[in-house]
Amino acid sequence: MAHYMGFIIGLSFLALSSLCFSAKTFDGRIGYLYPQFYDHSCPNAKEIVYFVVAKAVAIEPRMAASLLRLHFHDCFVQGCDASILLDSSGTIVSEKRSNPNRNSARGFEVVDEIKAALEKECPHTVSCADILALAARDSTVLTGGPSWEVPLGRRDSRGASLSGSNNNIPAPNNTFQTILTKFKLQGLNIVDLVALSGSHTIGNARCTSFRQRLYNQSGNGQPDYTLDQSYAALLRTNCPRSGGDQNLFFLDFVSPIKFDNSYFKSLLAYKGLLNSDQVLFTKNAVSRELVKKYAYNQELFFNQFAESMIKMGNISPLTGYRGEIRETCRKVNAY
Ligand code: HEM
User: For this UniProt entry, which residues form the secretion signal (predicted)?
Assistant: First the structure.
């Protein structure tokens, strides 16, 4: 009998806890991102973001790459909370000063313009973190890449983390294992790593980000055999041993402003620009196979890219009553 009672109590407990769970998912979906989040509060939000991004990319095609990267550098530091957009002030030390961002992260003025347009249309409603997620998707589409529905409802942080930016965002000279570990710490896996690295199908890198590959500085005095030597010679003409740190190079020299799979094809030919690109093909059997798959099949890459972008956009968002909707993306609200 006692046994039977225990069973009944156990069952009731199970039923109760599942009720609690469904209540949680039902009550306005607090804690969850979903594409329709602004459908009533700001029905034109998505169109407004697209319009400003399209204008900026028409003026300067590289802007698509810069905006895509901002979302990545935001999400890897205390989650997708627009912390990267904060300027230094009071106790806040801006992430814009970190090693990965200094003299490199760009697109902040475009975000300002989007935010101003949204504040005019529906004040205090659309978060800067959601602007970054939408702008990343629009940038991908505008350069010929895949589209996806962006889950929305992120809120903005009231702080930034310079150390998080320095430590969490992979560096171009990190080993394959370090890069993978940094992705795993964010809940992303090796498939996400390879697909999202495909972002380097657009945009630029500075000489300082890959110089060591050109001058046998890898530590063993040997040429970097994972870099095609005639391509290396070409790169050396504008990336000297010293000086020229800020000189710009296309990450994908085949089609630098088109979102396609030529980045992966170049890796097969040992013509990846950054060491962190080429190691995807040379240092790990699983990632090597993925690189090959995406090089041979653009659709496969596009589908996985969209899926991995949604996953990245889901890293620790602030939702419900946490965080705030900033009035200006560069600073926290006064109240
Ligand atoms: C896997 C590790 C990654 C490393 C080590 C890395 C590193 C870099 C570096 C060094 C640059 C050039 C910066 C400069 O010289 O100014 C760059 C540019 C860029 N990265 Fe990454 N990246 C990684 C992953 C990603 C991911 C996951 C995305 C997007 C989801 C991304 C998007 C971009 C874009 C679009 C650019 C060009 C930006 C522009 O032209 O303004 N990267 N990355």
Answer: 1-22
CATH number of 45-168: 1.10.520.10
Q: Which amino acid is at 18?
A: S
Binding residue numbers: 74, 77, 79, 81, 83, 95, 170, 200-201, 252, 260
Which among 78, 16, 159 has a CA at the least distance from the CA of 24? Answer: 16
The rounded Å distance from CA 200 to ligand 1 centre is 6
**Which positions ≥6 away from 285 have C-beta within 8 Å?**
none
Say what percent of the chain tops pLDDT 90: 87
For the stretch 250-269, pLDDT in tens is 999 999 999 999 999 999 99
Average per-residue pLDDT for the chain: 92
- Using the predicted structure, report yes or no on whether residue 284 has a pLDDT greater than 70: yes
Instruction: Tell me which residues have their CB closer than 6 angstroms to ligand 1.
Output: 62, 65-66, 68-69, 72, 104, 106, 170-172, 179, 193, 196-197, 199-200, 202-206, 209, 251, 274, 276
Asked whether the predicted pLDDT for residue 3 surpasses 80, the reply is no
CB atoms inside a 10 Å sphere around CB 323: 22
Quick one: pLDDT at residue 283? 97
| Tally of CB atoms within 10 A around 245 | 13
259 Cβ contact list (under 8 Å, min separation 6): 64, 140, 143, 144, 145, 201, 202
Query: For residue 17, is it left (φ>0), alpha (ψ between -120 and 50) or beta?
Result: alpha
Whether the CB-CB separation of 239 and 279 falls below 8 Å is answered with: no
Superfamily of domain 176-312: Peroxidase, domain 2 (1.10.420.10)
Per domain, the residue ranges of the chain are 45-168, 176-312
